[in-house]
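REQUEST FORM: STRUCTURE PREDICTION
Request ID: SP-0412
Submitted by: Lab K.M.
Chain count: 1
Length (residues): 320
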Amino acid sequence: MTASFLRTVRVAEVEPVASRIKRFRLVSADSQPLSEFSGGSHVTVCMKAPDRLIRNPYSLMGSPSDTSSYQISVLKVEGSRGGSEFMHERVEVGTELEISEPLNLFPPAKIARKHILVAGGIGITPFMSMMGELEALGADFELHYGVRSLGDGAFCKLLEARYGKRIHVYLQDQGQLIPLERVLANQPLGSHMYVCGPKPMIDWALRTATLAGWPDENIHSEQFNAPPIGKPFVVKLTKSKREVRVGGHQSILEALEQNGIDAPFLCRGGACGQCETSVAACDGFIEHNDHYLSDAEKASGKKIMICMSRISGDAITLDL
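STATUS: Completed
RESULT:
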């Protein structure tokens, strides 16, 4: 996918659903049905800030069978790069936005005997559509949802009302933690675990599952990390013979797009591999922030994921 595959939507509804979290319902601006999607899918939302174009991925939460609208939820992150602030402070009913077509890098495994869903905070969002799909298929699943407090937890009461005993909510302010070791120890052979939330939680859940003897192919995760802030540097492009300055609050991908260079992308979170780019030279050190390249590939210095990684130095030369 490139930045060209976009469609215009209009915000039909904005609803605060928890502390610092708003739900947005999006409808097609041309009154045509939106594209179908599957549980776990996300779209990339394009936000035209005064000084730059921001593109952030957000999970689709509604029913996959409903093409009349899309639903996303956005957590306002303090000290963010501007995307969540834009959505919370500049977007209202009637605002038009551009979005990508749905993409699914986090689908439920159809062959799974049972699905164990583990969510933390805003990481509940991909499971909203996933649970709807699993319920329609008659699949066996349960959700373990950790939140700081009931006020910070989006959709807790809604989920408990709809799915009953399948939903397990843990309130950190009451000393409740997800007993993941016990949960994983009591599942039938052929179960799959899915986790989404803050990076430390994801790392903990993946490590716990591995130590419990779960095979890698039965463990799934998704995280949308924002590209980190750093010092500006220059990207030199061998094919187009251009030089582009990457600002401190930009990713390489964003800087290329701002300068009219239509670079490939899918997830924009360092997970899918679509934006993998060969490095011809680097005047500095590559700061790898993706979770796609292997340790050996990162150590070689010959590849970079331009959606997430940057350099500590003056310039990098890419095969673009």
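NOTES: The chain has a mean pLDDT of 92.
Reviewed by: T.R.
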